[in-house]
Amino acid sequence: MKKVLLFLILVVSMITSWSQTENFNKYKYLIVDRKFDFVQQVDGYKTSSFTKFLFKKKGFDAYLDNEEFDDDLAQNSCKALYAEVKDNSGFLNTRSVIEITDCKGKLLFKSSEGTSKQKDYAKAYRESIREAFESVIAIPYAYDPSLLE
Fold first, then answer.
1. Is there a smaller number of Cβ atoms within 10 Å at the N or the C end of the chain?
2. What is the rounded CA–CA span in Å between residue 107 and residue 104?
3. Per-residue DSSP letter, 91
4. pLDDT, tens digit (0-9, with 9 covering 90-100), for 78-124
5. How is residue 26 annotated by DSSP?
């Protein structure tokens, strides 16, 4: 009985994940905020550059929002998705969630929460962002220009 219930939960979560990401393949670019709300300075604790690195590894043409874009993207910013890391930390845990929106601010995807018990903020944010990114990795992504409208 437990195996059946676990299987059903897994199937429902996969369907939910796929339905949230049905249009990701039409986006070639992804723009990451250079400064997240929970840090004091630009790329504090290297959170923005680490997030950009993970999305590049996933296959996106990723940029920080202060970098020079490709001509194609510079002409139309709606060709990109926008990623931001949200901090849900508590007293003893660092918790991060990755949110992906379109150019109009519509939330397209929200990752599962990544956690860390590290005391060093740089290590803690890196660990929690990497854990949150696991749900992004599960998204099937391959840029397909034929999906453009």
1. C
2. 9
3. S
4. 999 999 999 999 889 999 999 999 999 999 999 999 999 999 999 99
5. G
